[in-house]
Amino acid sequence: MSTLTIVIAAALGLAAALALDLLCAARGLLPPGFRAPWRRVLAGLIVAAFLAAGVFLPLAAAAAGVKIEPPNLSKIDTFQLFELHLIMVAVMVIWFLLGFAGRPVLAPVPPAPVPPPPAVSDGTGLIPAHEELLGTSPVPPLEETIPLAPLPASLPPPAPEIPLGRQFLAQFGFLAPDVRREIGLGLSLGLAAWVAVLAAIIAIAGVLLGLGFKDAVPHQPPPLVPLIAALPFGVRFAVSLSAGVVEESFFRGFLQPRAGIFLSTAFFVLAHLSYGQPFMLVGIALLSLIYAFLVRWRQSVWAAIAAHALFDGVQLLVVVPAVLKLIQGTAGKAAALLGLCG
């Protein structure tokens, strides 16, 4: 990897982290801990480092004219399949602790009811005291004035502090009135998204082939996809579940509320550029937008997590293993298309 590649990736990561910080401030989403400059700067540098290495490195290599060699698949162990997800979790946790640990957040307290103004009698009934002050009623004798209610013996209790764990759930979109309902909705929509996205990328591939752009359509899936598809069932299930939970938490729960749908989607797409097949980014972009608008609609990440995990699970547990057995001639192209979003 060249020095120029590292410099470009670092510059892009810093620029993206700065944009994220400014957008947070503009949307009023800066954590209370960021009032301390060192916390805000350190959190920004951590986010910048991850974005540089996990999102912008393949783009920087392309800009520098450097070809990144694919990893040696024979030396990849199970832990490495989850390594990037673990780093994402670490980035979110550190950012959260820098922003909220030791900085209590109080629960909102509904305003106290305003008591009605004291009333006075004019001999025929009661009238509000402000009418008397405006001169709309005669001033009653002092002995006919109704006394004011006594002041409360003590002040209301202070607002309770929101527990740190609940703050974490709120910051990353995990709070929902009914989590099981959200997951059920996500599974239903995830199945529909699976059908729609695969149909879309197959149609786009057909158009490209019809126009003569044969080199734009891959003839086989990314090397990592069949590698994962050959792993034991439990590992593939864990990879699918990890992708749904961690990637949606990071890109939709963390980035989307602060950076917006389209910028967070761009980051999500660029993070998959390392697969080395630009065409597959079409399916990834479509999926990302579906998940993004699902999060905006439901105001939590649970439905998107379920949809994402279902998509990857169907790909890795059912479709890719079945199609890889038929990789011959035209079946090879079908396998490539079916593996584009795994």
Q: How is this structure best summarized?
A:
This protein is mainly α and 342 residues long. It is built from 13 helices and two strands; from the N terminus they run H-H-H-H-E-E-H-H-H-H-H-H-H-H-H.
Give a structural overview.
- With 342 residues, this protein is mostly helical.
- The chain has two domains: 1-105 and 162-171, no CATH class; 177-342, no CATH class.
- Helix content is 62%, strand content 2%.
- The chain has 13 helices and two strands, in the order H-H-H-H-E-E-H-H-H-H-H-H-H-H-H.
- It has helices at residues 3-26, 37-63, 78-81, 83-100, 129-133, 164-171, 179-210, 224-229, 233-259, 261-270, 280-298, 302-324, 330-338, and strands spanning 119-121, 126-128.
- Strands 1-2 form a two-stranded antiparallel ribbon.
- The model is unreliable at 129-135 and 328-332 (pLDDT under 50).
Give me the strand/helix succession: HHHHEEHHHHHHHHH
Level of helix content? Answer: 55-70%
Q: How many individual domains? A: 2
Distance between the termini: 27 Å
- Which structural class should the secondary elements be placed in? mainly alpha
Largest sheet: 2 strands, antiparallel
**Low confidence ranges:** 129-135, 328-332
